């Protein structure tokens, strides 16, 4: 069974602008655990659906896509952004 996670894209720490904000992401959950490759030592698994990441403009579009393709999904709420506004001079108090 396909289980997907639908969440709102967060702004990256290194991103100053508001580009790509408000987009919604659908990504599949892992079915099998990762295991180390005996030759290289890298972690991996045979589950390739975790590599699929689809973005949508709205939450409703992402939900409609999941329901159209019979994908079980759950919504992950976005973390609230807390801004700490201070003046440069406050660094030297």
TrEMBL record:
A Pfam family matched in the record: NDUS4
Organism: Sphingomonas anseongensis
Taxonomy, superkingdom: Bacteria
Gene3D superfamilies in alphabetical order: atu1810 like domain
InterPro entries from the UniProt entry: NADH_UbQ_FeS_4_mit-like (IPR006885), NDUFS4-like_sf (IPR038532)
Name under which the protein is recorded: ETC complex I subunit
Primary localization class, coarse: membrane
Record keywords: Electron transport, Membrane, Respiratory chain, Transit peptide, Transport
PANTHER family membership: NADH DEHYDROGENASE [UBIQUINONE] IRON-SULFUR PROTEIN 4, MITOCHONDRIAL, NADH-UBIQUINONE OXIDOREDUCTASE
Localization of this protein: Membrane
